[in-house]
């Protein structure tokens, strides 16, 4: 047996394994998918139609290859849907599977990869191949116009996987968003404190260190606060995946940020991890200081895929320092934590000394000790690490 056939058979077995998992938990999944469909219907009938059609199609035929296509009109209906809606619905479905497995399956972590692979193939098959192999699409179809976004996703994934550290990953993500998509500036943020605070990780086309110094409280930006589910609206989980276009930043963002960066129009892309069922950060994109622009929604499928790839990569590095911290023999002292909190709020060494009734020399000593314990090169990195680790709020 040739190696290619062995690999083919092995990957097909993985798909069957995932299909078996979905069969095994069909009752729980159907119940959750029905609940989600009903909640979607209260907001947008078209989105509910896409989601329900894809659920019915997947339930009828769990493997994306093999056998005859059911002659029930599902494929023709799916072909009329915008790629953004298909990605959105498949993400919702996959997220549900991961959550059901966590709640009901022993050893759920070992089951996630097969499920990830099955939904990866569903995305690939329904987005890239069905329209070309099964039936004709009209000239105005969203599939055929600007289909190069698929190439951008492949190039982006290959680029970011070269990174070897968290800092490199953040820089590669920002460069990739700007280079492979029609944007000039990019800033990457991580959410901490139960998604109530965003800290800057990296920037491209903008002052990198200025982005790293940013700590944004989402309470000050209601649109973002709502979008990450802080308001716990009835269908808050559906907002995790989709980009947000802001035509006029001055109407949505505090004047401080608008003036500091010359924000005009911008796009916000969620950085989402399907297996975790949560958003771990966001990417802010624009075309330069003071430049207003309209966004073509045909970009949204690529933006969603970029955000998901970025989330999967970042999660690995974000988890790593937490494990490293848990294994450290010494921890930050209460005074060191207190000083790092003040630095995070923008206080200088002298201001921290005055607030704590300490000498400036003593505060510097505490900062040096905290830098050593956190293995940080400077105060900015120390504050960012302490925020990521949940040591300061």
Automatic annotation (TrEMBL):
Superkingdom to which the source organism belongs: Bacteria
Query: What CDD domains has UniProt attached to this entry?
Result: LuxR_C_like
Q: Which InterPro entries match?
A: Sig_transdc_resp-reg_C-effctor, Tscrpt_reg_LuxR_C, WH-like_DNA-bd_sf
Q: Which stretches make up the HTH luxR-type domain? A: 329-390
Recorded protein name is Transcriptional regulator, LuxR
Q: Which SUPFAM superfamilies match?
A: C-terminal effector domain of the bipartite response regulators (SSF46894)
| Entry keyword set | DNA-binding, Transcription, Transcription regulation
Annotated organism of origin: Geobacillus thermoleovorans CCB_US3_UF5
